[in-house]
Amino acid sequence: MPLALSLPSTLRRALQAEAQRGAPNEVCGLLGGVQRGPLFQAACYMPVPNCAATPQMRFAMQPEAMVAAILALQRAGYAPIGVYHSHPHSAPVPSAVDIAEGAWQATPYLIIGYAATQPSLAAWLIEGRSFTHLALI
Questions:
Q1: How far is CA 137 from the centre of its chain?
Q2: What domain of life does the native source organism fall in (predicted)?
Q3: What per-residue confidence (pLDDT) applies to 34?
Q4: I want to staple 26 with a disulfide (CB 3.0 to 4.6 A). Which of 34, 38, 59, 67 is the partner?
């Protein structure tokens, strides 16, 4: 069975709203939930400040806030099952920077893209220098 990311509609809408509020900068954070075999089930998300030098074109999670987000997820009974970030001016496809800096190997990346007026979401798995599309259910 291929890998998939389950993302409830309430979570999708909340992440899209966060991405819109953060534009023109990329927003980022962690997805919390559980993994059951090939299915990553997101139950919540934890925003983490983007501390990249050029936040309009890339994201870097602020380290202390990322640790705090992981601890908060664990206290809530969840694991960090994925990373999310936005592409305020492009499609939800991993950029060359995303792949080169893919620190969370073999972890779902949810990208909220704005290539058009309406946001679109896509999930990916980055492994090495390649990426695989994940089913988003």
A1: 15
A2: Bacteria
A3: 96
A4: 59
